[in-house]
């Protein structure tokens, strides 16, 4: 199981991450599609080859092909949007925020899966990428659709844990032995 491989690869000082991986992924209350789509989108957002290599096969096995592609699509479009909208937020000149983006984001309107699932995945990727404007936007859509805060929090926990695991494993790979 990929989750066990990731946990085994973590050093002793990251014991909390091992435990958190088991709880936020291994014992999640999220429906399979929401869970594994979030895991896959987050693994992609970390840009960590080792994390993606371990989590992708299990995500593929637990997702229908259209959900698998949509989760990857959420990671892709949010990689662009998070940079764009985070930059608009950070710029002192707010005039940029009134300008048309002119960037294609068609997948957001037609993701090929339940809109709530796609929004949840986009939200989780935005958490990893640190875009407050996108976080607020996706959280608002999710709450308006009736999604409980506990579900949104579960996505945050997955994003935080997968990102932390990626950071530790990638840093450990660079340390001298």
Automatic annotation (TrEMBL):
Alphabetically ordered keywords of this record: Antioxidant, Disulfide bond, Oxidoreductase, Peroxidase, Redox-active center
GO BP annotations, alphabetical order: cell redox homeostasis; response to oxidative stress
SS bonds (residue pairs): 131-134
Reactions performed catalytically: N(6)-[(R)-dihydrolipoyl]-L-lysyl-[lipoyl-carrier protein] + a hydroperoxide = N(6)-[(R)-lipoyl]-L-lysyl-[lipoyl-carrier protein] + an alcohol + H2O
InterPro entries xrefs: AhpD, AhpD-like, AhpD_core, CMD-like
Keyword Oxidoreductase: yes
Domain Carboxymuconolactone decarboxylase-like: from-to ranges: 95-172
Molecular function in Gene Ontology: disulfide oxidoreductase activity; hydroperoxide reductase activity; peroxiredoxin activity
SUPFAM superfamilies hit by this protein: AhpD-like
Record-listed E.C. numbers: 1.11.1.28
Top enzyme category: oxidoreductase
Domain of life per record: Bacteria
Coiled-coil ranges (or none): none
Active site: 131, 134
Function description: Antioxidant protein with alkyl hydroperoxidase activity. Required for the reduction of the AhpC active site cysteine residues and for the regeneration of the AhpC enzyme activity.
Subunit comment: Homotrimer.
UniProt similarity note: Belongs to the AhpD family.
PANTHER family xref list: ALKYL HYDROPEROXIDE REDUCTASE AHPD
Protein name: Alkyl hydroperoxide reductase AhpD
Organism of this sequence: Kitasatospora setae (strain ATCC 33774 / DSM 43861 / JCM 3304 / KCC A-0304 / NBRC 14216 / KM-6054) (Streptomyces setae)
Underlying gene: ahpD
């Amino acid at each position: 199981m990929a989750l066990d491989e990731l946990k085994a690869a973590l050093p002793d000082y990251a014991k909390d991450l091992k435990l958190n991986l088991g709880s936020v992924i291994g014992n999640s209350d999220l429906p399979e599609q929401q869970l594994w789509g979030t895991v896959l989108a987050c693994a992609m957002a970390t840009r960590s080859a080792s994390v993606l290599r371990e989590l992708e096969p299990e995500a593929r096995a637990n997702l229908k092909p259209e959900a698998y592609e949509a989760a990857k699509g959420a990671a892709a479009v949010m990689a662009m949007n998070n940079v764009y909208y985070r930059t608009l937020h950070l710029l002192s000149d707010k005039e940029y925020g009134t300008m048309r983006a002119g960037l294609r984001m068609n997948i957001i309107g037609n993701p090929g899966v339940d809109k709530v699932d796609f929004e949840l995945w986009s939200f989780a990727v935005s958490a990893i990428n640190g875009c407050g404007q996108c976080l607020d936007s996706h959280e608002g859509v999710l709450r308006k659709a009736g999604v409980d805060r506990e579900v949104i929090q579960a996505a945050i926990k997955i994003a935080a844990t997968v990102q932390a695991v990626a950071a530790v494993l990638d840093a450990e790979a660079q340390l001298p032995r």
